[in-house]
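Feature request, filed as a ticket because there's no other form

It would be nice if the structure record came with a short human-readable summary line next to the tokens. Right now we just get the raw output. Example of a typical job, pasted below so the devs can see what we mean:
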Amino acid sequence: MRRDPLQYLADELTSLREQGLYRRLRVLDGEQKAHAAVDGRSVVNLSSNNYLGLTTHPRLRERALEAVRELGVGTGSVRTIAGTMAIHMELERRLAAFKRTEAAVVFQSGFTANAGTVSSILGREDVIVSDELNHASIIDGARLSRATIKVFPHRDVAAARTIVSGLPRTQRTLLITDGVFSMDGDLGPLPDLCDIADEFGCIMMVDDAHASGVFGKNGRGTVDHFGMHGRVDVQVGTLSKAIGALGGYVAGSRALIEFLCHRARPFLFSTSHPPAVAAACLAAIDVLESEPELIDRLWENTRMFKSGLQALGLDTGGSESPITPVIVGDGALAMRLSDRLFEEGVFAQGIAFPTVARDKARVRTIVSATHTRDELRFALDCFARVGRELGIV
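Raw output as currently delivered:
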């Protein structure tokens, strides 16, 4: 009988089960909403990136349906052959205007936008200076570029300056940070990093995936929030979180965008967005510009829920955004907290190593503009009850 060459994978899964870290995929029954049906259970949904509730916004629905009727369900090609439609060009023009840059290009996901950009604009003779908690897509792109990677401690501007100042001025250097860090909800020190980039001639890049639609005027991101327009060379954003649809984009100079269209491998070798996705994204930009009250409501809910968690004595780290972790340390305890909350009617996913450090396991919560105060109060009551049960509160 043939030996299974993949037995080691089954052994790894067994180890995860023994550690209390094994997770199965929970299934959403129906729409992605603030109160949703998951695995057949009605729950307050604190696990979605649907910050503004746009996944079900009527204007996005209608534009998507119109695009299907007029343009079909797919494009049948990559952008560089026969897959570029007028609607893709319109979306990129709107994104560039929204981000106040010369141009923009759309990728199939935020992950490919980051990885494709970093790996294509740098090579083995270059240096990447990166925050230790930057997103995995940045890390993968850096590795693919074959550039030298130098990592500074999280948000440590002095350490970043020391690294950059020790490099030859003639060496091409990319300084990169998340705008909002996805696990801790804190902000990258963008103004100080821009100062370093200006002083030493670095390429400045920010991944604004969790800031798009959340920070800045009408949700333009941390570049707008901090008033850094013209000082960030590469802005990456997502269309799959607050925007409510799917994809990622890069905004910057026209030369940068045209180069990515010629060299970024995810752009070159992936079929373009279905017309319905592009149409929904265009409608989302319209909503951001015409319904700023959604962002106001998001922040009202964020302040209320975050203060409620802190009043319970829970460790929410340094969160400055709608992402609020409840840090418990031990991975198995985080998963138990998540499971008990789910049983009580709150869906807040547990996160442990290797996504976060071994001693920083947590349940990550994300509120949205569409949560009601009653739903958030119910969730806080569940945290209090389960927290006491598990000895966390």
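Something like this underneath would help us a lot:
The longest strand covers residues 323-329.
Residues 129 and 175 are 5 Å apart (CA to CA).
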